[in-house]
Design a protein that fits this description.
Layout lengths: L4 E7 L13 H14 L11 H18 L10 E5 L12 E7 L8 E4 L3 H6 L13 H11 L2 H4 L12 E4 L10
Antiparallel strand pairs: 1-2, 1-3, 2-5, 4-5
């Protein structure tokens, strides 16, 4: 994975790596409510129970990752993609992209899901990569077997997996961009 980059997409006026999960619940809910009222970005269409579900899924992902020997230094991850996914820019009014080489990160602090964490952990279709969290070494085999969702499902017509998500469980690299 020497030539690979991790990508983070965000609203230009808010800046990168704004993490709802790291906020007190009341503050995160107020932000979600404001986004719903603005109704101008993808996040505004999320259901009212999005936040508690997200927190539960993140804790499951963290536990799975630690069971595999991962080093989750943070309680909640920052989200990136393995490789680019132009579709994610459309989630924002003025979507920006941040690109960081994978070798800048400690691989023991990166977990991966084949698709976004939400459908990966919740979609019931018996695909073997559902409800799975992978290490950097494991995701290589998954890509070799199934390919890049960014390529075979660019338009989202073949299922919910549109990209490979990376959960970054350490702020060491991230803090340079906040």
């Amino acid at each position: 994975m020497k030539q690979l980059y991790l990508y983070h997409y965000y609203e230009a006026k808010r800046g990168p790596f704004k993490n709802l999960s790291a906020l007190p619940v009341a503050e995160a809910q107020a932000i979600m409510k404001a986004l719903q009222e603005e109704n101008t970005v993808f996040a505004s269409k999320r259901a009212d129970d999005y936040l508690p579900i997200r927190l539960e899924l993140e804790q499951r992902a963290r536990a799975y990752f630690i069971q595999k020997g991962g080093k989750a230094k943070n309680k909640f991850p920052h989200y990136m993609t393995l490789g680019p996914c132009d579709w994610l820019k459309q989630w924002y009014n003025e979507g920006h992209e941040l690109k960081i080489h994978i070798e800048q990160f400690n691989p023991e602090t990166l977990s991966f899901t084949y698709g976004d964490l939400f459908p990966t952990m919740r979609f019931k279709d018996d695909k073997p990569y559902r409800e799975q969290v992978y290490t950097i070494h494991e995701i290589k085999d998954v890509i070799n077997q199934y390919g890049w969702p960014q390529q075979w499902n660019r338009e989202g017509q073949k299922g919910p997996e549109r990209y490979i998500e990376v959960q970054v469980w350490d702020d060491e690299v991230i803090k340079k961009y906040i």
